[in-house]
Hints:
The chain is an all-beta fold. The protein has one helix spanning about 90-95, and strands at about 75-80, 100-105, 110-115, 120, 125-140, 145-150, 170-180, 195-200, 200-205, 210, 225-230, 240, 245, 255, 260-265, 270, 275, 280, 300-305, 310-315, 315-320, 320, 330-335, 340-345, 345-350, 365, 370-375, 375-380. The protein has one domain (about 40-80, about 115-380). The chain has a 17-stranded parallel sheet that branches. Strand 1 (about 75-80), helix 1 and strand 2 form a beta-alpha-beta unit.
Amino acid sequence: MAVLPAGCGSEAVPEAPQGSWVAAGASAAPSSAAPSAAPAAPSSPAPTAAVVVGNPKGQAVVPAEAKAVDTSRPTRVIGNGTPASCTSKAVVAAVAAGGVITFDCGPDPLTITMAATAKVKNANGPKIVLDGGGKITLSGGGKRRILYMNTCDQAQGWTTSHCQDQDHPQLTVQNLTFADGNSTGETAEGGGGGAIFVRGGRLKVVNSRFIRNRCDDTGPDLGGAAIRVLSQSKNLPVYIVNSTFGGGKGLGGRCSNGGALSSIGVSWVVLNSVLTHNSAIGSGANPARAGKPGGGSGGAIYTDGNLFTVRIAGSIVTDNHAEEGGGAVFFVSNDRTGTMTIESSTLQRNPSDGFETRGFPGIFFLGARNPTVKSSTLRK
């Protein structure tokens, strides 16, 4: 839980460093509710050649472990060459069986509307890869979460005596669109994760697109309209590579906190990606002010915990919005050990209606030291 200092005003926020970016910001003082129902959203077509995923101008170097996985020799294939053969049931079965999974649904883009959440079985790893080939959209139909992995969920099988810190399963999603996922009302592990929820193991997202996902409208700590992550093996980071969250008006995610990404005690590396038009729509911050249900922080990214890191490189984070703090990024390291780095990126037009850190427009930050900003643009 993010514990913000009482009366957190200009005297309680970090001083702005010298840096090579345009900065203009202000700071103000911040100080569980029942979920609300959400209307079903229409399905969306998968990206075509005309849809740009990620930031093609991003120059951040992608380490080997963060690159797409070779799926030329899949363990299993969903479909037999026709759209009708690619069903929700087939996706659920393939994800449960594990391995390297691809799709054969015909030559055209296809949306598969999920009738149930696909859940990873922890014993069926160690590596699970879901590759849509740039043609497949998995849709929650505005009614359900799309993909779930939890090493501490006994229903998915316990494979070690230390479920909170094991190196498997290692889940990679690549060349996919996740649309209209909705985890509203999900209470396991605190909720959140409208498209994808992960606890334990490892998660990597490559060349993928997330649009119109959502989770509960209020709550002080839940979040991640697109992705919610709790714990990763050995505190290794979640990689987000060449991916888009939102990307245009009406396409962004909406949640109490973290309109795109949310985590507790988890590190992130976001490379050559786009996060735009996402919203944190809760009210009352965290901990919640008296008479308020809580939430409203981290328009694009909400991070909380103790020792963790966030690195944003070669990325565009614009036109996100927070009802409370951090229109772009909310970062609170409770023991003040966490660090954040922004490299060769653009953050602008990310309003924070309640509070943000002076000198870092769109960011609320409490950590070991001021965020490190290199060759980037930060503007209101």
